[in-house]
Amino acid sequence: MSMKTVSRKEEIIATASRLFKEKGYVAVSMRDIAQSMGIKAASLYNHIDGKQEILSTLILEVAHEFTNGMNQVAMENTGPIEKIKSVIEMHIDITVNYSEALAALNNDWMHLENDDLKDFVQMRENYEENFRHIIKDGINKGEIRPRHPEVILFSILSTLRTLYVWYQKRGKLDVNVLKKDMVAVLLKGIAV
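User: That's the sequence. What structure does it adopt?
Assistant: Structure tokens below.
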């Protein structure tokens, strides 16, 4: 395994994301983060502007992962069911790799400020719009049952968005099993 040197900033963000997950963004102070790292709070500010910068770094990184993933799926030369399968698998990959950041994203996104908040909400809306488009395309092509697209979208997305909670509680389940079974379960109700 190659030893990647983690920058002080990355270390701060990793520590903070763990604390945010445990206590929630509002309850965590810069002093808590410093204490957890065994350094003085003042020295945190050499590396980072404050809690807001940590939150936006965490959340926007994951939001970009979802956005890039969805854009790739949208460009795939495959049918709607295959695309939904890709979206589910992408969600699982991101969940496994970013579970603490996902906790911040789900619980604390409303504490983002200004452009960061605007950018996040815009990315989330675009993501849902792309997903909706895939579902409607599937219905039009007769690959997906003619249920209300919003109901299908909500049913799949709400499962995928809370996966990180369950995944952490369950202990690490084999990712390939998770992908195979989750795709099977989520598509069973909609595939023709």
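The mean pLDDT is 93.
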